[in-house]
Amino acid sequence: xxxxxxxxxxxxxxxxxxxxxxxxxxxxxxxxxxxxxxxxxxxxxxxxxxxxxxxxxxxxxxxxxxxxxxxxxxxxxxxxxxxxxxxxxxxxxxxxxxxxxxxxxxxxxxxxxxxxxxxxxxxxxxxxxxxxxxxxxxxxxxxxxxxxxxxxxxxxxxxxxxxxxxxxxxxxxxxxxxxxxxxxxxxxxxxxxxxxxxxxxxxxxxxxxxxxxxxxxxxxxxxxxxxxxxxxxxxxxxxxxxxxxxxxxxxxxxxxxxxxxxxxxxxxxxxxxxxxxxxxxxxxxxxxxxxxxxxxxxxxxxxxxxxxxxxxxxxxxxxxxxxxxxxxxxxxxxxxxxxxxxxxxxxxxxxxxxxxxxxxxxxxxxx
Length: 367
Hints:
Helix content: 40-55%
Protein name: Molybdopterin-dependent oxidoreductase
Radius of gyration: 25 Å
CATH topology of the largest domain: Fumarate Reductase Cytochrome B subunit
Oligomer: single chain
Distance between the termini: 72 Å
Domain Oxidoreductase molybdopterin-binding: 235-366
Largest sheet: 5 strands, mixed
Transmembrane segments: 21-43, 63-83, 104-130, 136-155, 176-197
Strand order of the largest sheet: 2-1-10-5-6
Strand content: 5-15%
CATH class of the largest domain: Mainly Alpha
Shape: elongated
Keywords: Membrane, Transmembrane, Transmembrane helix
Pfam family, one: Oxidored_molyb
């Protein structure tokens, strides 16, 4: 059987190639949007949102998929732009109302996607070269991407369907084939997922060569924010440390008091918004037991850290407080908590973003 005749544009510029790249990119957008929405609700829960208690690896899965789909989209969107960029400069610039709408949606889609991917990649590296609040901006722009993509698809759907039907019969100029273009795109996306996204899979961390915190830290656990960076080094080592339980009964506990309470050990992950996950053995006091000491049974709790700043406190719903695996941890992997892991005590609970596993806890009260 003879191959395509040596006529027409290169395979990269064929409508069938652009349609297939768009489909792959669309899958990434949907997965990234859905998992990002869930992550945002976990970190900034609406009043109607019930924080899940299980499985323990839920946030590891959803945030791992979020990061993986985001980094996979980077080579795909670059290849898609390479396939369609001549269309972006076609005349007339405005033309009819449908054309104006299509071009506006395309511009919004391209700008919003590049913003999301660029800032998301820098967030993984914790390099914030901007003044805006990243979670809020990323959350809002995600809806711009979804809306612009929906309008773009609605306008282009007849062309896309035609391109899929006729793709196998299209002819193109000699050179790289469409299969080679798509294979290269998938290979680049897969390489990006391995180089960055493997940090969410314990045991594959060494493959995450572009993941800043996929390696080992103190006590075989990565660290996002050190005690020095949080400005708590002097305070946490003070012999005057007291954990204040502020409820109907005000209780103050020294570290020795906490160590004397019944201890429990659980195997739970720390899963962070940047995508990395690490499992460990955590030993400490059940948060439900501490709540009972202060007469806070059945209450939502707030945990305050010695650290100052945006994430110096977190809240926990009463249902999660009662969970047997929700601890105020004192030990990590059989050793006293390292200073950078929250010494003298920190929150650890299942299916919870790392940013809410508050370190250097000094106060527990009703939320």
